Amino acid sequence: MPAPTPNPCRFADALPSRRRNLISLTPLIDVVFILLIFFMLASSFTDWRAIGLAQSSAESDGEPLLGAVLVDVRPDSLRISGLPVGPAELRGRVGDHLDRAADRLFVVRTGEGVSLQRAVHVMDLISAEGAERISLSGLPGQ
Amino acid sequence: MRFRARINDAARQREDGMLPMINVVFLLLIFFMLAGHLSAIDLFDIEATTTESEGPAQSQDALLLVGQYGRLALDGTDIPEQELPATLKQLAGVSPDVVLRIKADGRLAATRVVAILRQVQNAGIGSVELLAEPGSR
What we know:
A: alpha/beta, B: six-stranded mixed beta sheet
């Protein structure tokens, strides 16, 4: 004949029922639910990324930027140092520039009609090659 | 007395039945407390720029919000466009090492952001970060 298994609730059953009833679970659940709803509504799960912008200090003074590579962003085309390129070729040329000088400054110059999203996309292409100094600039007089 | 004891038993059984639910609710609560982070709600809706690169945002300094039509807000306060240079100068005066985070709408003209960057530079703020959501275009 198998030995009787101990009842896990035996200790709880041994407690006087008056003591068990002192704290009711209902208010606790209320509070926990309110906390849960608060945290569900107030929490944000967006993982923001920061794109560091190098400031081309000479830009406002009108001085030339020595050694910087100019990337022109237009609504339908891209130019690097004046040469029209596609996105893949842009990455290749950026890589070539970085091979020669790893801390090269890239100035992304946006023209009229270019959205910020497109400019950031071009900056993504440049930083994907390992460029660390990227600056955002506009055409003179804008 | 026996009737009262029977009511107590029924109440206890009902509460015991709720225990698994309370466990789940507690787990959810702990998850939301640990996994999410509390932050102030933006003053107006923006469709944030998306990026495929770069690391997570580090600083928790000043935040400049730029809406689709150029509406501006600095740290949750609406600021008229003409008051932006004065506000930025004041910010740079209070904390010279401030890192200004700019959260701009992706549909905004890039030239508008460049104009704001120029004002930030003229105000003497040295570091600027452009905030973007991860994801492809």
